[in-house]
């Protein structure tokens, strides 16, 4: 079908089949149907959905009512990718136009989130006006908001009126003494309040907002920034408390703190967690509730699949003269979504069958330490399949395989080492960095790979594998694990340098 954006000048602008199989493709199978329907195509609330569907943010909310020690919203660099950073602040009208342009161009975009660059609820008129217009003009788009929670209780009812079914609250602590080390001040009832008292009010409002949303049937995700030495141990308690109050998902994210960002933590030399520390804490919290491990810490104006940013395609000067036939766009979007769902069902079937076959092999083999976990890195541009050239990957999806389970444990960003231009002279350095980033992985699955990186990966104890190109990721990971099991490679312990230590 033809593209549904028309410019004014007339030109086009452009279950595993069986639940409990051990595959993670349908971890939502246990949820009530109404909740499955809410999260099925939300790339943040459903891990599987993030392979298939995109999200976008509109930066309509410049002000904030608190200060976090890890934030400096003045900093704006288009190469940056972290929350609170944005290039262009939009009015609600501009934001609505941008959302409709993106929806028509990227039909797999299912969710519009407002996440900054300040706090959306510290800018209630701009945020709610954007939601108001979109719920009327683009009813097929899910609306989502992310907040620090200070102003949340006051607007819960209005959010519900606009059909907002997904809210994220950033909760870094439930103890004001911990909070006082994270938040220097809040702005509350027209006054600046500092120290422990500020943290106490913020925590009270966050918890009240969470309870009010849950009582109204809104799905709540809690984001927590892991700050080593400040709230690392405390986050297990946060997870326990928010789960008890009905939060749907907990997303523990690593602190990003660099001196050049100009944040308090960055300047003071506060370090972020290692990959290992992050994973250990996520695993420790997972006993209490579902954990999100696929967060990419998006910019407040991000557009596209998680991990990619196509915002530069939709700057104001590019979209201002577009006329969008949204009825036609909605029809096209529905077709694309139906095709994605058919593809997801087929992938679940294939991965389920592969896992049943692995489980059956495991039962036939004598008991050995072969079910030790194996980390595999996967190069994928989306769609839930192994489909990317090793040298073109900007991130690798990390899966852990055992004879009982295949699970996604995170994404690791890398520098693009193969640019195909004169920077190729620097390729070796970037490749070495990539190999360091893949520490702990024993296999890297990709669509293709060159001779040079193949040799260097092998020398580092990481086996490149291009034999499962275009297969569903979990099916491919299961198949490689089975091959390792059959060849006896799992009989040995993983080499020391492969242990997770990045
Ligand atoms: Fe945006 Fe956040 Fe909604 Fe997603 S992001 S407002 S819930 S639509 Fe998602 Fe980005 Fe992580 Fe946020 S990957 S930073 S969790
Ligand atoms: Fe920055 Fe968000 Fe904290 Fe406000 S709530 S200071 S925008 S990180």
UniProtKB/TrEMBL annotation:
Pathway: Cofactor biosynthesis; Fe-Mo cofactor biosynthesis
Keyword Oxidoreductase set for record: no
Tagged with keyword Transport: no
InterPro entries: Aldolase_TIM, Di-Nase_FeMo-co_biosynth, DiNase_FeMo-co_biosyn_sf, MoaA_NifB_PqqE_Fe-S-bd_CS, Nase_CF_NifB, NifB_C, rSAM, rSAM_sf
Domain of life: Bacteria
GO molecular function (one): lyase activity
Keyword terms of this UniProt record: 4Fe-4S, Iron, Iron-sulfur, Lyase, Metal-binding, Nitrogen fixation, S-adenosyl-L-methionine
Cofactors required: [4Fe-4S] cluster
NCBIfam families: nifB (TIGR01290)
Family: Belongs to the radical SAM superfamily. NifB family.
The protein's role, per its UniProt record: Involved in the biosynthesis of the iron-molybdenum cofactor (FeMo-co or M-cluster) found in the dinitrogenase enzyme of the nitrogenase complex in nitrogen-fixing microorganisms. NifB catalyzes the crucial step of radical SAM-dependent carbide insertion that occurs concomitant with the insertion of a 9th sulfur and the rearrangement/coupling of two [4Fe-4S] clusters into a [8Fe-9S-C] cluster, the precursor to the M-cluster.
Name under which the protein is recorded: FeMo cofactor biosynthesis protein NifB
Lineage of the species this protein comes from: Bacteria, Pseudomonadati, Pseudomonadota, Gammaproteobacteria, Chromatiales
């Amino acid at each position: 079908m033809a593209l549904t954006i028309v410019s004014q000048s007339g030109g086009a602008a452009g279950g595993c089949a069986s639940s409990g199989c051990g595959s993670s493709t349908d971890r939502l199978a246990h949820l009530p149907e109404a909740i499955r329907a809410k999260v099925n195509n939300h790339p943040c609330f459903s891990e599987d959905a993030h392979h298939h569907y995109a999200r976008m943010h509109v930066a309509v909310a410049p002000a904030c009512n608190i200060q976090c020690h890890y934030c400096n919203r003045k900093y704006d660099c288009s190469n940056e990718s972290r929350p609170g950073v944005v290039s262009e602040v939009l009015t609600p009208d501009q934001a609505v136009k941008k959302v409709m342009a993106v929806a028509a161009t990227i039909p797999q975009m299912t969710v519009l989130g407002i996440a900054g660059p300040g706090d959306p609820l510290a800018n209630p008129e701009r945020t709610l006006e954007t939601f108001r217009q979109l719920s009327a003009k683009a009813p097929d788009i899910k609306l989502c908001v992310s907040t620090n929670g200070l102003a949340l209780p006051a607007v819960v009812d209005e959010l519900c009126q606009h059909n907002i079914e997904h809210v994220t609250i950033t909760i870094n602590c439930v103890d004001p003494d911990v909070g006082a080390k994270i938040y220097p001040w809040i702005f509350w009832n027209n006054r600046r309040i500092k120290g422990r008292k500020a943290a106490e009010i913020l925590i009270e409002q966050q918890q009240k907002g969470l309870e009010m949303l849950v009582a109204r049937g809104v799905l709540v995700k809690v984001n927590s920034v892991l700050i080593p030495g400040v709230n690392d141990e405390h986050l297990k308690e946060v997870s326990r408390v928010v789960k008890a109050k009905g939060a749907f998902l907990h997303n523990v994210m690593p602190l990003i703190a660099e001196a050049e960002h100009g944040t308090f933590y960055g300047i003071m030399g506060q370090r972020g967690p290692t990959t290992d520390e992050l994973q250990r804490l996520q695993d420790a919290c997972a006993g209490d509730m579902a954990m999100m491990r696929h967060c990419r810490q998006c910019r407040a104006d991000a557009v596209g699949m998680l991990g990619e940013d196509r915002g530069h395609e939709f700057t104001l000067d590019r979209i201002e003269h577009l006329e969008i036939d949204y009825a036609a766009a909605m029809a096209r979007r529905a077709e694309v979504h139906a095709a994605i769902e058919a593809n997801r069902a087929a992938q679940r079937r294939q991965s389920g069958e592969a896992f049943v076959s692995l489980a059956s092999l495991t039962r036939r083999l004598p008991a050995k330490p072969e079910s030790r976990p194996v980390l595999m890195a996967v190069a994928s541009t989306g769609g839930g399949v192994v489909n990317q050239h090793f040298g073109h990957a900007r991130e690798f999806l990390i899966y852990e395989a055992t004879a009982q389970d295949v699970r996604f444990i995170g994404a690791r960003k890398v520098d693009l080492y193969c640019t195909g231009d004169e920077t190729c002279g620097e390729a070796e350095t970037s490749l070495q960095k990539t190999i360091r980033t893949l520490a702990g992985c024993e296999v890297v699955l990709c669509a293709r790979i060159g001779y040079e990186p193949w040799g260097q990966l092998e020398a580092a104890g990481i086996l490149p594998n291009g034999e499962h190109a275009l297969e569903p990721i979990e099916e491919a990971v299961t198949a490689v694990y089975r091959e390792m099991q059959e060849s006896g490679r799992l009989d040995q312990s993983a080499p020391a340098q492969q242990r997770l230590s990045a």
